[in-house]
Amino acid sequence: MQVPILKQGAYLIATVQSALTDEDLKQLRDTLVMQVSKVRARAVIVDVTAVDVIDSFATRTLRDVAHMIRLRGAETVIVGIQPEVAFSMVKLGLTLEGVATSLDLEEGLAYLDRKAKAHEEVRAHR
Amino acid sequence: MNGSQEMAAVTQPRLETTASRLREMVAHLRHQRAHLREEWARLITEAKLLTAMTKEEIFAEATSVYDNYVEALETGTYEALQAYARNLSERIIPRGVETHEVVGIVLLLRDVLARSLFATYHEDFNKLNRILDAYEPAANRIAGTVAVGFVQERERIIREQQEAIRELSTPVLQVRERLLILPIIGVIDPQRARQLTEQLLRGIRTNRAKVVVLDITGVPYIDSPVANHLVQTVEAARLLGAIVIVTGLSPEIAQTLVNIGVDLGKMNTVGDLQGGIEEAERLLGYKVVLTQEPMLHSV
Amino acid sequence: MRVPIDCDSDVVAARQKGRELATQCGFPSTDLAVVATAISELARNIVRYAARGEIILRLVQNNGKRGIEVVAADDGPGIPDVGLAMQDGYSTSGGLGLGLPGTRRLMDDFEITSDYGKGTTVTVRRWRR
């Protein structure tokens, strides 16, 4: 199953549909990493609003995505984790430690914009 | 004709089955209804049971209990009786009637009816025995059914009340945009902890909260499983993009958290609720500025 | 309800069936996610370590409580040391391990039988409160 990935400004937005198999997840990971380099994106937003289960493999893959993308100088934000899914994840003992999370796409974009502005300010003061 | 009559007499021996004994007994009890019911009501008052109800109320309920009792004896089935018992319980529990009272009055009725059967059949010892053989197990089953029905109804009511209390005691307050406060009071059991998490997460979503102040000043102590749950709640909130500030951590609870391996340095904690709110506002970028002299002066 | 587990997409199918069954039982949405997640973990173990197996789903009752039961059974190599596998952080293939302790935290009842060469059967249940 293909996950649609859109480019919005300097960001890539991947909107995940509900039922991804392990293979789909791995494919998504590889595609995102490749795309980030190709379009020189500053950040990747993975929107999991429609996802009903995030288990250990999905969590590990998301962490891998964030890690690999950071190696390419970009940031990853996971948005739209549902309350029930978050509950199950923490009960399973899974953390997305080191990965930024936001309530939804709007919040995720706001977060990235704030961060970009802060960077600009730091650079301007040098 | 004589011949066939004789044959009729031979082919119809007197068969006394449990069913016919029951029928006879039920007929007797229905016939004696007014008298036995009065006797029973008198004994109830004498035993100082159902003191929360008036004499008229007792009489009214006694009538329907009596009828249901006899019907159960007659049909040998107890579903109707069970339904009636729960119905009755629903009515009398709010009046303050206790379990021992309900059990007491049913046993009194059992005895009143038994005595009546004694009185009626005492001349025929064998018949009395057979009648009691039919009556006793049925009467005991009835007593059990009514008692269990009452207790089940009580338990159902208690569960409902607990649920209501739980919901009341975990309010989620939105004080500013993006800021939620969850004041927790009292002891948290696993059930309540789970409800807390669900309410919090849903609240974050609905209010689009970025910061939650979880105030546990009013919580005297928590055990390890609940402490674990608290930590999980904080983590789950972060997955929804919200920061949780825990305020009012008593030294005991702090110790419990440390004992289960929580790095308090990583958890956002502030001493009291006020401080927590200020920290939350700071995180959200609010600034509280005094624009002019306070007006509350004595001149 | 039996769901054969042969490959990746069966994992998704199993957890969707589990979600449907749990919805029928009247579980609230949080529990639906919990049950589906547990099924996902168990089914994946079958795919990863046993290549083939099945997930059996059914509604159960106990003392008036209603619940859902998930049995994950396979004829795979089995787990030689179940006690070790039930510890957080244990893994033979360098990953997150079998996720068994986590799955136990998710569900109310948890039973596992497994032995070297004899396959594995994990039974979990979640009850409606």
CATH class of chain A: Alpha Beta
CATH topology of chain C, which one? Answer: Heat Shock Protein 90
> Pairing-aware structural class of the strands and helices of chain C?
alpha+beta
Radius of gyration of chain C from CA coordinates: 14 Å
Helix-residue proportion of chain A: 40-55%
Number of domains of chain C: 1
CA-CA gap between termini of chain C: 23 Å
By helix and strand content of chain A, what is the structural category?
alpha/beta
**Could you name the CATH topology of chain A?**
Transcription Regulator spoIIAA
What overall geometry of chain C do the principal axes of the alpha carbons give?
Answer: globular
User: What series of H and E elements makes up the topology of chain C?
Assistant: EHHEEHHEE
Q: What is the CATH homology-level superfamily of chain C? A: Histidine kinase-like ATPase, C-terminal domain
Which spans of chain C have pLDDT < 50 for at least 5 consecutive residues?
none
What does this structure look like?
The complex is a heterotrimer of chains A (126), B (299) and C (129). With 126 residues, chain A is α/β, with parallel strands linked by helices. Chain A is 51% helix and 17% strand. Chain A has a 5-stranded mixed sheet with strand order 1-2-3-4-5, sandwiched between helices. In chain A, helix 2 links the parallel strand 3 and strand 4. In chain A, helix 1 packs parallel to helix 2. The longest helix of chain A has 20 residues. Chain B folds into 2 domains: 148 residues, Globins (Globin-like), CATH 1.10.490; 112 residues, STAS domain (Transcription Regulator spoIIAA), CATH 3.30.750.24. Chain B has a 5-stranded mixed sheet with strand order 1-2-3-4-5, sandwiched between helices. With 129 residues, chain C is an alpha+beta fold. In chain C, strand 4 and strand 5 form a beta hairpin. Chain C starts with a strand and ends with a strand.
